[in-house]
Amino acid sequence: MPDNMVAVAMSGGVDSSAVAGLLHREGVPVIGLTMQLWNQRRLPDLASDRATGRCCSLEDVYDARRVAEQLGIPYYVVNFEERFEREVVRPFIDEYLAGRTPVPCTLCNNFVKFDQFLEMAASLGAERIATGHYARLRFDEGAARYLLYRAVDETRDQTYFLWGLTQAQLARTLFPLGEYRKSRVREMAAEMGLAVAAKGDSQEICFVPNGDYAAFIDAYFREQGADRERTRGDIVSTDGRTLAQHDGVHHFTVGQRRGLNVAVGEPLYVIATDPVSGRVTVGRNEDLLRASATVREVNWIAFESLTVPLRAEVKIRNKHTAAPATIVPGAEAGHVEVRFDEPQRAVTPGQAAVFYQGDLVLGGGWMD
Amino acid sequence: MNRYYFDHNATTPVSPEVFEAMAPLLREDFGNASSIHYYGQRAKQHLETARRQMAELIHAQAQEIVFLSGGTEADNLALFGVVRNSPRPARHVITTAIEHPAVLGACAQLEREGVEVTRVPVGPEGIVDPGDIRRALRPSTVLISVMHANNELGTVQPIAEIAGIAHEAGAVSHSDGVQALGKIPVDVEALGVDLYSITGHKVYAPKGEGALFVRKGTAIGSIQFGGHHERDRRPGTENVPGAVAFGAAAAWLIENGQAEAARLQGLRDRMEAAILGRVPGASVNGGGAPRTPNTSSICFDGIRGEALVIALDLRGFAVSSGAACSSGAVEPSHVLTAIGLSADRARGTIRFSLGRLNTAEQVDALVEALVEAVGQLRRIAPAERAHA
Fold this sequence. Notes:
The complex is a heterodimer of chains A (368) and B (388). By secondary structure, chain A is an alpha/beta fold. In chain A, 24% of the residues lie in helices and 27% in strands. The longest helix of chain A is centred in the first third of the chain and has 20 residues, at 104-123. Chain B folds into two domains: 4-11 and 257-387, Alpha-Beta Complex (Aspartate Aminotransferase, domain 1); 16-252, Aspartate Aminotransferase, domain 2 (3-Layer(aba) Sandwich). Chain B has a seven-stranded mixed β-sheet, sandwiched between helices. In chain B, strands 9-10-12 form a three-stranded antiparallel β-sheet. A two-stranded parallel ribbon of chain B has the order 1-11. Chain B contains 13 helices and twelve strands. With 388 residues, chain B is of the alpha/beta class.
């Protein structure tokens, strides 16, 4: 087998299909692998003809297989369901139950795609993997490090989900799409005659049908035979008045406005959730503003460690515009404090803070 | 890249003599075997010749052979045909934990219809103890279904004894012989079974043709309804080309089956000896039991079978992890779990099944590729054990 073989993580979507096509066109020996991450036969309560963008559907595998066949590359489906449930799905549920708002894509990247998948690829003789992520990766001779940069297409940039990757992981990874705009990727897929060139985009949380994560959590509870009554509780105002009841703190995320079912004159937002008391606190938009955030489990990509305060731009959720801040090393290892120049709306526990200097991704961590 | 096929328990290619026998049925002798005219009569003659060939191979009467679409249909007809046809109010079926999904799936459906099912466990070598079958008997037992040879392990079950137990209890005896036919002698007289499932594509005939042996006098109803084909047991226009192919495969086996089985056993034993000698941490599942001569189930410590199958395929060698029907599933094989393998060891198991395509040179090349692939997997993924 060729020693420069690359394993492409093929989801059946246009991006990863284009990656396989581009590498193949350059003459790189490619094998296509589709990760089977979630069994769609589970949680039949969620089954719906209208469910879209579900991961690992038969249609997606069909599409990926078809692209591999068009390219004439070896193609296999590999089953990572066990790891995915343990490292992504259960933590996702646990985070919501603990009153936080998780980022499952980051967990999947850290513990499945750039771990078990990387290992599977290596054991098959592929020293490197390629994915359809929109991000740029360069080796910096001076720093002797792999540096991660935002994608050229700022509307598609996925670096918010990639901050947890180590140098060892990045050293064996290719992100061929980081230099292109999405529209160009579709064009190239069409030029290569790939069957998926016009296929729609997938949704954010691949295993949750129609984006209804609360319904997913409820269905998962039922499957596990767990009692879901325990998370019910009150919706209270910032001054302690009970306004309404709710079906579980996992239905709420900080900053949320819709679905509160509270009739009050002014718009109300979720300010905080407390899984212990079952209390969801709501208040005005201004109550959501925070001047700082505590970040733990920090991973640095651009350098080894932080010893002095650093100026950076910080993104606190995927759709957030990075805000100028000072990052101050914490007392505990792996902790930092982010002091924003201007208070930021909805600093949400469980989400990631990702640190940038321009397009360069410095690193990131989880917010408390 | 040269490609070598070591997955004959999944399916086999159509052999040249079968292809030759079948070809005229697709061209000039294309008639419907139920038609009165010349074309129909020609088709009917071919169909009945095939039935006689099939009967001769398994020591049955021609009229006891019901042609149908394959092993799954044969098993379904056997189970549903007997159980639904039984006049008894309470009905109980005995089977084993290592049956093919065609039987286990049918049993699960029978349970949904109110039938009670006992799945008898097997020992560590993959053999069912007839004493366990006897102990599972109830007054309401109407059918005992035990496979002749297991698809994953190749282990051969004591069918004659089990059939005897069934008859003493007044129950019907069925055996799924899909993986036995063509590998070990099949004599339904000596076995004493009432029903026996077989399929063409495991013996070098094409997919889509199988048969159920139905001993004369066995109380069995039809499970599909239509015309009067196959003595009312299986309505539907007969697949005459398929039956002729299956008949030709039977004719070849009558002549050559024994010699080929001996040849395959030689190759299989050569392969196992080489693997056990050269790959540390390899062990044969069911190795102490009577086995079909072509099948070898080998567990490689600390390896994901899924990865090994891919690594071998990239080198040109086709093998399988578990059975084809269950590959891609996250659950470890129910057969390997039933013989007491841990989930990890079950996932580290590869099935090699040899056949007419294989030679000693191919076996030696397979062993070389295997040594290399296992070495690579163990170098890269030693941590997998700690995780699982």
